Amino acid sequence: MESCGMNVIKYILFIFNLIFAISGIGIIAAGALVLADVGEFNHFVEGRIMAPPIVLIVAGSIVFIIAFLGCYGAIKEHYSILIAFAAALLIIFVIELAVGIAAAAFKNDFSSVMKESLKESMKNYTDVDRQAWDKVQKKLQCCGIDGPIDWNNSAKKFPESCCNENMQMICSYNTAYKEGCFSKLEMRVENNATILIGVGIGIAFVEIAGIILACCLAAAIKKENSK
């Protein structure tokens, strides 16, 4: 006969997993939005910066799937499935923790890597580079790396994308956007990093709660079966 405490844990875990499945969709959406936002300027953004949102999308997909595993294990009171569910949550938690540590370690040299990428692109200035510069300058309303002086100091033609397209004047140093693209790109990436960190911390607490609940129910089932 089931104990009252065991029933309570079972239904709490079931409800928890329904919420967990919904949170999985939220994680996928957050990762996709950040990936789309940062990926828009992937010509200048180092590849490792794209990894955290991709990991978040994968983690969200796995969370969504294993949430149903947890629901099934809770309702059927299946000891092995509950242990597998807890183990899967623990693995996801460890992966997210590892990605978070790697991202924090890379944060120190992120700025210098991106600035070098901007300098190299301005120096080469192929058709692909020109299109990338036009895109970032129009979108972020910026000019050059640290300001329009960068284009004046280069041998390149001053780009029209440095100015408001509705302006009825020739685009030049005096009429261009004054803020450089480096600071705007840096701020954009940092804002997205804050979103990812917030989502990551939130899901980590949910995962820990899920592990504890699953282990408690599994222990209660094992105790009940041993009677």
CATH third-level topology of the largest domain: Cd81 Antigen, Extracellular Domain, Chain: A
Mean pLDDT: 81
Largest sheet: none
Reported CATH architecture of the largest domain: Orthogonal Bundle
State the assembly state of the protein chains: single chain
Q: What is the gyration radius calculated from CA atoms?
A: 25 Å
SS summary, helix count: 6
Number of strands: 0
CATH class of the largest domain: Mainly Alpha
What do these coordinates show?
- Disulfide bonds join 142-181, 143-162.
- Belongs to the tetraspanin (TM4SF) family.
- This protein is mainly α and 227 residues long.
- The chain folds into 2 domains: 1-76; 90-208, Cd81 Antigen, Extracellular Domain, Chain: A (Orthogonal Bundle).
- The protein has helices spanning 4-39, 51-76, 79-124, 127-140, 149-153, 181-225.
- Helix 2 packs parallel to helix 6.
- The longest helix has 46 residues, at 79-124.
- The protein starts with a helix and ends with a helix.
- The mean pLDDT is 81.
How is the secondary structure organized here?
Blueprint: H1 4-39, H2 51-76, H3 79-124, H4 127-140, H5 149-153, H6 181-225
Properties at a glance:
single chain, 227 residues, mainly alpha, Cd81 Antigen, Extracellular Domain, Chain: A, 2 domains, 6 helices, 76% helix, 0% strand
